[in-house]
Amino acid sequence: MKILVTGSKGQLGIDVVNHLSRYYEVVGLDKDDLDITNLESVLNCINEVNPDVIINCAAYTNVDGCEENQDLAYKINGIGARNLAIASNKNDIKLVHISTDFVFDGETDSVYTEFDNSNPLSVYGKSKKAGEDFIKKMSSKYFILRTAWLYGKNGNNFVKTMLRLAETNDTLKIVDDQVGTPTFTEDLVEVIAMVIKTEKYGTYHVSNDGKCSWYDFAKKIFEISNVDIKVLPITTEELGRPAKRPKYSVMRNYMLELEFDYHIRSWESALEGYFK
Ligand SMILES: NC(=O)c1ccc[n+]([C@@H]2O[C@H](COP(=O)([O-])OP(=O)(O)OC[C@H]3O[C@@H](n4cnc5c(N)ncnc54)[C@H](OP(=O)(O)O)[C@@H]3O)[C@@H](O)[C@H]2O)c1
């Protein structure tokens, strides 16, 4: 099997390329090699590489940045996904696309399954939903994998930010009224590796098990890494970020349970795995 990975130098893209290269022929391309917003480039590249599977790890992931750069957000997260859908459908290629819990509004305190309606609050969430919608309409062999609060050994993420801030601060104020599920890239990569071998197409939630607030997450990071620091809870309003975020975007990996009888470890044990 030959696999093309877009956004290959991002946090997830690096792990996907490293892991799948052990088993398959993998071509990893980042923005400089393939800009997914350009349909002609995408079509040419896919003709040339001729993969069996495309894994789209490319995205504009700066949630607050998307509010300021709306055009770029829709171009990368919406039209970029459309371009990959067109190219993969034309060439009968399986397409794996990564989406987000931010497609939900988080207004209730019940867990979301893949059968619940999305209703994004931010430009980032809307642009990711646009990408999902294009793919659902234009690609017949797709896996949309919605993940959440992603962190891994490469790239930027909340775990690394916490550890960096702890080097120069005695106290950190962290938001306690947004609840979701931190997800380790390596657990998401395992799911990608599993689904691409099948034809069980559709939308899947892929997050670690359980839930916490960013405040709980920060406390756990410092507990596991033995960093002595005071963490204080604050509200989203106090932090005052430009993009609206869901209050409760906990997802159940219901399709993974139904289709694969697959269960992912808790976010706490995944975090311990990260530090090992
Ligand atoms: N990070 C999270 O907490 C989180 C949570 C839920 C879902 N997700 C989803 O998970 C996926 C992977 O996220 P990540 O954390 O790995 O993001 P990331 O580290 O920001 O990686 C995204 C990659 O895409 C590249 N890229 C940007 N524009 C591109 C373009 N036009 N053409 C090709 N490549 C382009 C970026 O390059 P530059 O850096 O050079 O721009 C970067 O290498 C995304 O779909 C994201 O929406 C992430």
What does this structure look like?
- With 276 residues, the chain is an alpha/beta fold.
- The protein contains eleven helices and twelve strands.
- Strands 2-1-3-4-5-10 form a six-stranded parallel sheet, with helices on both faces. A two-stranded parallel sheet has the order 6-9.
- α1 (11-20) packs across α7.
- The longest helix has 21 residues, at 70-90.
- It is globular.
- The two termini are 31 Å apart.
- Residues 6-7, 9-13, 30-31, 35-37, 57-61, 76, 80, 98, 100, 128, 147-150, 155 line the site of NADP nicotinamide-adenine-dinucleotide phosphate.
- The site of NADP nicotinamide-adenine-dinucleotide phosphate has 27 residues, from α1, α4 and β4.
Rg from Cα = 18 Å
CATH topology: Rossmann fold
Ligand types: NADP nicotinamide-adenine-dinucleotide phosphate
Please give the alpha-carbon distance between the first and last residues: 31 Å
**Total of domains:** 1
Tell the overall outline.
globular
The CATH architecture: 3-Layer(aba) Sandwich
Question: What is the spatial order of strands in the main beta sheet?
Answer: 2-1-3-4-5-10
Structural class of the secondary structure composition?
Answer: alpha/beta
What tags apply to this protein structure?
single chain; 276 residues; alpha/beta; Rossmann fold; six-stranded parallel β-sheet; globular; binds NADP nicotinamide-adenine-dinucleotide phosphate
